[in-house]
Amino acid sequence: MALVTTKEMFEKSIKEHFAIGAFNINNMEFIQAILDAAKEENSPVILQASSSAIKYARMNYLMKMCEAGIEEAGVPVAIHLDHGPDFESCKMCIDAGFTSVMIDGSKYDFEENVRVTKEVVDYAHARGVVVEAELGKLAGIEDEVNVAEDDAMFTDPMEAKEFVERTGCDSLAIAIGTSHGAYKFKGEAKLRFDILQKIKEKLPNTPIVLHGASTVIPELVETCNKYGADIPGAKGVPDEMLHEASIKGVSKINVDTDLRLAMTSEIRRVLAEEPSVFDPRKYLKPAREKVKETVQHKIKNVFGSSGKA
């Protein structure tokens, strides 16, 4: 199966009330784990890479690995640029074969965000590529994203409608209380589903995206800390809230931190329990399997996309 855009999978997600998992990739093991999980669950999936992940893996290597995995997976797969910082980054990915890009203009004021997004939309649409944009600011730190808590802001439903109409973006990432990284909440986890509902009322046919949506799975954090990590007090979005979001109109849910925790927890465990191990395959294989288990859990029990390919 060839690469696809997110257009058809999002149309189905809106109609049938489920979300597509967008999982961040950095190397071969992540790609294999995600696609193996999607294949077993017969689920559409989005592989997404940030600009820093592309720099790390190198564009040609990343694309060739994705293409190899897609040949085996046999399910709809889109390749997406996560948090494209500017037009040039988006253009580079479009020209390299990405089927979807995100232009993150949330750091700008409304008018500049509209201008930058429209520029990317015009270039992408002329080449059959879809565009995700962002309105509102999520707090947290992850790769190129670094927003102080005081600077975070919820998405305004009226502005969302105007923004989509003026830019022509294909999907919209909104801020309803999630945040990037492993420390999403200091107290009780809470998402503004009232804002989501108002946005969906104004944009019923526009796919809505939720960033900063890792659960920060407690068992994975505990394993990391047990074997020498220092990740105290990490707290993410509960599975129940993410499942509710998928039913209430969120079409794409991003997962990065949980995959990092899954891989790191197993690598730490193997190296601690088997100190004689120095063959990377001995610790990367169980790490890959743990990432796969994590992705399968999301697809099957949280997002509801199992069997939707």
Descriptive overview:
The chain is of the alpha/beta class and 309 residues long. 49% of the residues lie in helices and 17% in strands. It contains twelve helices and eleven strands. It has helices at residues 7-16, 28-41, 51-57, 59-73, 87-96, 110-125, 157-167, 193-202, 218-226, 239-247, 257-273, 280-303, and strands at 20-24, 45-50, 77-84, 100-103, 130-135, 139-142, 145-147, 171-174, 179-180, 208-210, 250-255. The protein has an eight-stranded parallel β-barrel, surrounded by nine helices. It has a three-stranded mixed beta sheet with strand order 7-6-9, with no helix packed on it.
Structural class: alpha/beta
Helicity range of the residues?
Answer: 40-55%
Rg of Cα set: 18 Å
Q: What is the topology, as strand order, of the major beta sheet?
A: 1-2-3-4-5-8-10-11
Question: What is the terminal separation in angstroms?
Answer: 12 Å
Rounded average pLDDT:
94
**DSSP strand content:** 15-25%
| Poorly predicted regions | none
In total, the number of strands is 11
Write a short abstract of this structure.
With 309 residues, this protein is α/β, with parallel strands linked by helices. The protein has helices at residues 7-16, 28-41, 51-57, 59-73, 87-96, 110-125, 157-167, 193-202, 218-226, 239-247, 257-273, 280-303, and strands at residues 20-24, 45-50, 77-84, 100-103, 130-135, 139-142, 145-147, 171-174, 179-180, 208-210, 250-255. It is 49% helix and 17% strand.
